[in-house]
Design goal:
Strand order of the largest sheet: 1-3-2-14-13-12-11
Number of domains: 1
Shape: globular
Distance between the termini: 30 Å
Radius of gyration: 19 Å
Oligomer: single chain
Number of strands: 14
Strand content: 15-25%
Length: about 375
């Protein structure tokens, strides 16, 4: 049994089961370092930091330690797009090619913004002539996807767009608003509200970023098809370390704290309100979280439900706790965010000991269950 970790932070009265579950994960040697946060109706009820920020266990995790949260980033980036929808600069039902004419090539003229953001565009990855460094070049990546022939008929199925989702989302935002998605988030949401979230990790923040302990094996994808191989298994499927640190990758390279993520997810739990400030209208949030596709995914070996950038619970397939309308996202290695609008509840888990779980990590599942136990 592992020794007790450094542990700091607060839990509101009644939420002690969350701290107890976190300590069990450390006792079972499932963690290195992590942060866990939750809010209820806009008030923080859990804000815990535990363990180590480095593999040698010399630096404790602190409240300001930055964790790369991988695809949890999509839920935050989707919030920036919802803001544009709220302002009338964008519509989920409009054709992507109306904003981005080159995207109409190779049979993609009818693909809507909502379809592109719900993993239905048939562009789950790039199949050849690409490098890990190329992901840092948004114009190059956007041009490549615009010219690409879809790997399945758009709109007929979902196939998880691990990195390409961010290229599509970023280009859609830029053409609708003129700003990159990272700049939009910083100027409209995270900056004004003082929320510690950024796409990438600039050099001046390097000392705050935790070290990752990589998973021991690849995930079990089941039978490998072309969309899965392009999304995850080509040598260029993931960005290089330099691209991951220095570029804006709206699908994957958010660097943040669990407290910041839990705060940002309030927009989904409270009809567009974060910290008592409205960042998007209730109708735009409802449109962002509405189901746009569900069924067996072509890339991930699971039955999934997607909104415009978020994963969703649905009857018989609850990922993010028992709330029937809960939405959220998981991130490579185990990170997780969720929001339950019926309970006005948010949750975030960021960690640096990665597992090879797909869709949802058991550690996150158990923490979410402990949060609901406290309600």
């Amino acid at each position: 049994m592992a020794s007790p970790p450094p542990l700091d932070g607060v839990v509101a009265s009644g939420f002690e089961p969350v701290r107890e579950q976190l300590l069990r994960s450390f006792a079972d040697d499932e963690e290195l370092g992590c942060q866990v946060a939750a809010s209820l109706d806009g008030e923080i009820v859990v804000d815990l930091v535990a363990g180590w920020a480095d593999k040698d266990r010399t630096r404790p995790v602190t409240p300001t330690s930055l964790f790369p949260v991988f695809s949890c980033t999509k839920a935050v980036s989707a919030l920036g797009l919802a803001l544009l929808v709220d302002r009338g600069a964008l519509d989920y039902e409009q054709k992507v090619a109306e904003l981005w004419p080159q995207f109409a090539a190779a049979g993609k003229a009818e693909v809507t913004v909502g379809q592109a953001l719900s993993h239905q565009a048939g562009l789950s990855g790039i199949e050849s002539d690409w490098t890990p460094d190329d992901w840092a070049d948004q114009p190059k990546a956007a041009a490549r996807l615009a010219a690409m022939t879809p790997m399945w008929p758009p709109g007929t199925a979902t196939g998880y767009h691990a990195i390409t989702w961010g290229v599509l989302a970023g280009e859609i935002a830029r053409r609708a608003d003129g700003r990159t998605l990272g700049t939009l988030l910083d100027e409209e949401i995270t900056g004004p509200l003082g929320i510690d979230f950024r796409l990438g990790a600039p050099p001046e923040e390097a000392g705050r970023v935790v070290e990752l302990r990589r998973p021991p094996a690849l995930p079990e994808f089941g039978e490998i098809n072309a969309p899965t191989r392009a999304a995850f298994l080509e040598k260029w499927s993931a960005p290089s370390a330099a691209a991951f640190r220095g570029a804006e990758l709206p699908a994957a390279n958010g660097h943040t704290t669990a407290a910041a993520l839990s705060t940002l997810m309030q927009a989904y739990a409270r009809e567009g309100v974060i910290c008592d400030q409205r960042v998007a209208g209730a109708e735009a949030i409802a449109a962002a979280t509405a189901e746009r596709a569900h069924g067996r995914d072509l890339v991930l070996p699971a039955d999934l439900s997607f909104g415009a950038g978020v994963m969703r619970n649905r009857p018989g397939r609850t990922i993010f706790g028992p709330g029937p309308r809960a939405v959220g996202h998981s991130g490579h290695g185990g990170a997780c965010v969720m929001a339950d609008p019926d309970r006005r509840l948010t949750f975030a888990y960021a960690m640096n000991r990665q597992s090879n779980a797909l869709v949802i990590d058991p550690r996150a599942e158990r923490l979410i269950a402990a949060v609901y136990q406290a309600l």
